[in-house]
Amino acid sequence: MNNTTPIIAIVGRQNVGKSTLLNRLAHKNLAITEDLPGTTRDRLFTTVSWLDRRLIMVDTGGLDPDLESIIGQQVNIQISLAIKEADLVLLVVDVKAGLITPDYEMADIIRRTGKPVILVANKADNLKMGQEAAEFYSLGFGEPSVISAFHGSGISDLMDRVLEELPDQPIATPEEDNSVKLALVGRTNVGKSTLLNTFMGQERSIVSNIPGTTRDAIDTPLNFNGTNVLLIDTAGIRRRGKVESGVEKYSVLRALKAVDRADIVLLVMDTEELVTAQDTHIAGYVRDTAKGIIIILNKWDLGKGQDKAEVTQTIQSRFKFLDYAPILFVSGKTGRGVDTIIPMALKVQEERNKRIPTAKVNSVVTEALSAHTPPHQGKTQLKIYYATQADTNPPSFVFFVNNPKLVHFSYERFIENRLRESFGFFGTPIRLTFKARGEKC
Fold first, then answer.
1. Which residues are annotated as a binding site?
2. Residue 394 Cα to chain centre, angstroms
3. Where along this sequence does the record place binding of GTP 1 (predicted)?
């Protein structure tokens, strides 16, 4: 069952501690935190897990009352778009500063969307400040969750409340479950809709030279040689003018939702502009969610004599964490190479569903142990007693060992490479879990 990971938008006026809250939830500094208004001008998202449920947390810039400011216009539009795409909104206010006019303005923006809201009273660094949070009841969102993002107090209660407020997880329909779901993702104007039209042989999506023509995700069912395929063409939202960069980031959120629904992600990139930061963000999310992936270099007809080997090396150097991903060179405009995409996707799906007998798994592991001495800590050396494939889609292996803490990342990667050398698994991540002997598989 493919469930969409809920999106939580963290909004509020400037300098209320939104980035500090995001950092606290992520357990690392993913957003710039500085005691200056307006530091976070671009949204930043990260995935967090609370009580085994994955969430996408989206940080936003602070509401800027100066609507004549170009940056202010961009930030305000980003906030509105983030709220529109969110499943839940955290409205953050500052207990130290007290209730001021921009808080009411932000509350009015959120109220008009009809989205569920949790009011978060931040910077309550002591009991007295926590009591002063009562004044924020006047915003009309009920009891505030009183926290100190900087010190970490109140965070657990807030996250418990987040899970309570979220809508129930959607259940995939049987029709979707019977098909191989392929998500076309990538930056604006890399040719996703053109590729889709070439697949279908018709103008299924409106295509123009204006970036962002596709404004909503479009699902297209396709029967390919007897196999049901669902093509998900993601939004490529961008408008011309001052707000262009802000709206561009909005499309990333929809891409993440499409990734959640997919079995395999077709990451489309432009020959003339290879790997960008946005590409690596999306690719990293694909890896984290353990989806299959194919890297598609579109507009190869515009490559101007580029060497495939050199381009491949460039892409692989930027996507070292996706060294198992096949790379296809195509042209949606001329149709060159497009006919290889769906067959490749179906092969990747076969790899995701591949199951290896336990005896063969252990044979490879034994050879790996002989070739590379396991790590040790002090006098205690890692021992792998046996391994087995526990699941498919994605392929998942469980290793029973004397002490899971002795498994170093580099040794885990070594074992993964040996499994790939022996059994393939191209186009898909594989999961390795190390358990103490006696633990349940």
1. 12-19, 59-63, 122-125, 186-193, 233-237, 298-301
2. 17
3. 12-19, 59-63, 122-125
The residue whose two tokens read 């490559």 is 303
> For residue 426, what is the DSSP state?
T
Question: Span 299-321, mean pLDDT?
Answer: 86
Domains plus CATH for the chain? Answer: 7-165 (3.40.50.300), 180-351 (3.40.50.300), 358-436 (3.30.300.20)
Higher confidence at residue 48 or residue 240? Answer: 48
Q: Are 52 and 3 in contact (CB under 8 A)?
A: no
The Cα 183–Cα 255 span in angstroms is: 8
**Among candidates 127, 160, 121, 126, which has minimal Cα distance to 142?**
121
In contact, 185 and 282? CB cutoff 8 Å: yes
Count of CB atoms situated within 10 Å of the CB of 175: 10
122 beta partners: 94
DSSP character at residue 320: G
Number of neighbours of residue 43 by Cβ within 10 angstroms: 23
**Type of residue at 304:** K
Contact 382, 401 (CB under 8 A): yes
pTM: 0.70
Which DSSP symbol is given to 36?
S
The residue-averaged pLDDT of 95-101 equals 90
- Share the mean pLDDT of the chain: 81
CA distance 40 to 251: 19
Binding-site residues for GTP, in ranges, read 12-19, 59-63, 122-125, 186-193, 233-237, 298-301
